[in-house]
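Students often ask why we bother predicting the structure of a whole assembly rather than each chain alone. The short answer is interfaces. A chain on its own may look different once its partners are present, and contacts between molecules only exist in the joint model. In this exercise we take four input lines together and write out one structure for the complete complex. Read the inputs first and try to guess which parts will touch.
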Amino acid sequence: MARYSKQREVIENILHSTTAHPSAAEVYAKAKEVIPNISLGTVYRNLDSLSHDGEAQSFTVGDIAHFDGNIAPHPHFFCTKCGRVKDLECDMDKLLSLMTGLDGCEVDSETVLLGGLCSECV
Amino acid sequence: MARYSKQREVIENILHSTTAHPSAAEVYAKAKEVIPNISLGTVYRNLDSLSHDGEAQSFTVGDIAHFDGNIAPHPHFFCTKCGRVKDLECDMDKLLSLMTGLDGCEVDSETVLLGGLCSECV
DNA sequence: ATTATAAATAGTAATCATTCCTATTTAAGT
DNA sequence: ACTTAAATAGGAATGATTACTATTTATAAT
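Now the answer. The structure tokens for the assembled complex follow.
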């Protein structure tokens, strides 16, 4: 019981209505606009469970986890100057096929993260 | 003055004599075998400066930074069961050429990290 | 060799993202 | 309405990393 909380719904909406790859703190700030007393722990717990349920993916930039409502595996680019994280596009199967050393392994997560200066910051 | 410390040399040797991608804590443990009173801060500082000087690269698995004495860009695979991190091989230029969305960007770091079960743990 | 000095270290305290804990609240089934 | 399992709020704890400072060390000039 008590499975569909308003908090989870709000967090899910935030993730699905942005392409900005927010951190937990940023999701928390946005969620507070709707639920002023939502707690940070709730944000973390729901971001985790959304990721586990396949409704989001996460990746770490520096020390900070970022969340993406788009679950299709794709590479990301982060700008070391402005901090923005952008989506890249890529045929991930083709990408995997370029690699050797995976014999006998079972791959179930793929993180591709490029860093540098974005077109606005070059 | 005081630029070539024994500590830095030991840490550099540890990185260059393993393919195990140790964390800072693991480097610290190994360095202690040679310099028992070396401090963890010194390990972090030297790992950082080695990375900045292009003598090592680092990447984050979970929450933990791992260090690699091999500075050539290459993908890594970590096993979610045993925790091992393995090197993969890949033509990184070809990998980059698969991507779109980088127009106008200046790429200066490339992290490719696959996760799953390694051949020993499958 | 001795000395002067800037850089590096050891040890410890502080930081900060994330996780854990618990009393309270909430949603769903009866 | 009542029961109960799941979720929350708020705050405390964790743990990797960084910052701080007094002390030590390596280099270069005397």
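Check your guess against this: Strands of chain A lie at 57-61, 64-68, 76-79, 85-87, 106-117.
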